[in-house]
Amino acid sequence: MYKGLQPPSTDLDDVGDDTELSQYGDVIYFKDAPHAGSDVWWGLSLWTDHLSVDELARRVRRRRANGADRARYTTAGALREAQFCIYHSRDEGHVTVMRKAAAVPWTQEDRDAFNAAFTEPEPAGGTP
């Protein structure tokens, strides 16, 4: 499990292809690139397993899901095919997704590849 405050010196890639990953977002926004100034400015944090919208809202926002909350899903293999590295990080259940060689900033092509690896967002309570 990598917990450094700088990008890893090698392309860490220790999450199995079949591992399901969940991302929290809302009706307006899902993070699709790292942001300068964040703790992990070279990658994005996702959760392992297929977590419900409510589970994600509780973990990310520390509250129950509301009508604006959404979740989307992918696998480590789908992100790896799009040229991302996925490794265990931070805390139990977290993974970090980064471009090969921790390339930043992510280009629009990188963002598009990241977004294309996910299912359509699901609202709290399931498919609309």
Automatic annotation (TrEMBL):
This is Uncharacterized protein. It comes from Streptomyces arboris. The lineage of its organism: Bacteria, Bacillati, Actinomycetota, Actinomycetes, Kitasatosporales.
